[in-house]
Amino acid sequence: MKYRYLGNSGFKVSELTYGNWLTHAMQVDEAAALATVHAALDGGITSFDTADVYANQAAEVVLGKALAGVRREGIELFTKCYWPVAERGANDTGLSRKHIMESINGSLKRMNVEYVDLYQAHRFDYETPLEETMQAFADIVRQGKALYIGVSEWRAEQIAAGAALAKQMGFQLISNQPQYSMLWRVIEAEVIPTSESLGVSQIVWSPMAQGILSGKYLPGQPVPSDSRAADEKAGSFIREKLNDDLLSRVAQLAPLAEECGATMAQFALAWVLRNPNVSSAIVGASKPEQITSNLKALEIVIPDEIAAKAEAILQPVAVFDPAETKSPPARLV
Q: What is the CATH number of domain 3-211+277-305+318-324?
């Protein structure tokens, strides 16, 4: 396993992070979830990402069980808060001091740990003063409940404002967790330059564009029955993106991946890790062999000329607009 520093800190994370969004307590049973986590550990992955909203808090419980018995100091554990959870009452959402403090305590209890390595604001909260949010994070760090603080899907100006307040309050904002892939490049124009200037780096989710870049979805063909897109609940947001033009262009990446000695999924992972502001790419899995295959992406080197060809193929269907990074305008209750 290879490691990279997270932001301007001394904290290192594995280049691949295991994430349990849409899988644990949803798509796979507990035995399968434990098997995939153990495959990640066996392959050298030490960074694990979850959130209280995943399966409405149940995913944290499963991850805690899967990591039970693992030396706590030997792993990097991330979780998040913002989205409505539990009974979805008036204060069960957002980044108010009340919700943040209750959320961190709940996450620690569910995962049966004394602290998390990275605690993240899952979205920006327009209804809570940023000063209140950052003060709550500062107190959590001082209490030892989280070692570092990050955000997820914040825009460049929001990251800058949060980093400035964090500095005033005596701690660092070190990371952002955005969506990023060859098909979703909205962070490149503003978020990454701002982050680089502030000592913030990215832990990216959906580096395979919800599996689209794996090549499993073919133009003119029904989605595979065992794919995420086939899942009635979890697959709706994937199916709405699928069209023959996009899938035909993705299929053209196959010979480029082969030239690099990679599967298309490994090629997609290796591409996001080419960006020096990306510290880690999040991968999920429903089967241990998927994790084993993903790990081989760390051995792949994509030459500049091949990366340029891939980007040119996908350019007409890729999304670049920074405005696509959005937070809800109001809390969802």
A: 3.20.20.100
